[in-house]
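Holo model, heme C. Inputs:
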Amino acid sequence: MLKNRLRRTACALAVWFLATVFGNAQETSPRPLAVLPKLAIDLPAKEVALGHKLFFDKRLSGDATLSCAMCHDPKKGWADGLPLSKGYPGTLYFRNTPTVMNTAHGKYLYWDGRLPAADLPTVVRDHIAEAHFLQADGRLVIERLRQVPEYEVEFKSVFGGEPTYGRILNATAAFVKSLRSQDVPFDKFLGGDDAAINDSAKSGLALFKGKAGCIRCHDGAMLTDGKFHSLGLTSNPDIFQTPLRHITFRRFFRTLGVPNYRALRQDVGCYCVSKDEKQREQFRTPTLREVSRTAPYMHDGQLATLEDVVEFYNAGGGPRATKDPLLKPLGLTEQEKTDLVEFLKTLSGKPIEFPEIKVPAYKLRKLGEN
Ligand code: HEC
Ligand code: HEC
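Output:
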């Protein structure tokens, strides 16, 4: 009896000890904000140039009417400016389109973090194949590209052979990787140029790290902890009022094996990947780099401006029970709200501009000639 009790006490102590150590480990203090890191390896320029064409080429979609760039538009911060993505023709998607800039430095991609940023070619493959994005059969895409003599030459020069699915994915991923912020005022400020951001932004930075507590989730060089949280948001009603969106929503969660998917009235977030109840309605903390260009905000685009986002946090977040306990009303003054927005604006660099890309045309293939 006594032995058993001792054993139980010892067990309880061990559990308590582990919980304390593990618990503390989870509550590590935020990492300091830092400049955008360099890429680990230099990207081959010829592969990037090929990927650039593919990114703008509608042949990558099933009905050849949609390119990557039509949803990730360089003029709209490499996003689309819409609350919810339009999806493949005949569908409508139920989440907001993120920018593809700086994705090489992310940890998880997609709002629910279902793919790792380290594997961009897989993200491209997922996009090409998915019914709500490009809905194309890889074999068809390869055949189309093989009918374009210019591509034949270019693939040969980059990869030493003809277009294959793997090469298409790698080249497109290389282009995406090359899209990184440049000339960012905040990075210049961190580098010692005190005049790179104005006084209001400097006050905003202090609030970001202090009173407003943003840095507890948006930390490090990418201004994200790489983790998942719920901000307590109720879903954008458009998802359930627009049948085509609702169909995509249901099909998506059904495919991922989410129980009771028909009755859902909330995006379950990364629960759809982990099936861990604690992660219900949690989304990955997005990077704040380029954020002033990628309105509207949040996974379902329900907040129209940065002012709305700050107002939302100031009120202590949304009403859902899943809300992260870190979110509390902030009591910011009007000036403080302005300063915070001013700081967020310093995270966008010079727009990446290219001359209009010319996608090569089909040409009749002649045996032995091209
Ligand atoms: C129909 C619109 C649409 C098209 C076309 C499209 N995307 Fe996307 N893209 C999205 C949406 C929406 C998401 C977010 C999906 C989610 O979180 O569920 C996304 C996410 C991404 C991401 C991850 C970004 C992040 O931070 O999570 C990358 C990278 C990306 N797309 C690249 C591409 C490439 C490359 C192509 C072309 C092969 C492409 N996209 C075509 C809408 C589109
Ligand atoms: C508890 C962690 C947490 C805290 C604290 C936090 N955020 Fe966030 N932030 C997130 C998550 C998670 C999202 C995405 C949520 C979603 O889409 O449902 C997000 C989204 C955002 C977005 C939208 C980005 C986009 O691309 O749509 C902005 C802007 C933002 N946060 C700024 C801030 C500011 C400013 C503060 C401080 C006032 C702050 N955050 C505090 C976790 C946090």
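Residues 60, 66, 68, 70-72, 85-87, 93, 95, 97-98, 100, 103, 106, 109-111, 123-124, 127-128, 133-134, 172, 176 surround heme C (ligand 1) (CB under 6 Å). The mean pLDDT is 93.
Archived with the compound record.
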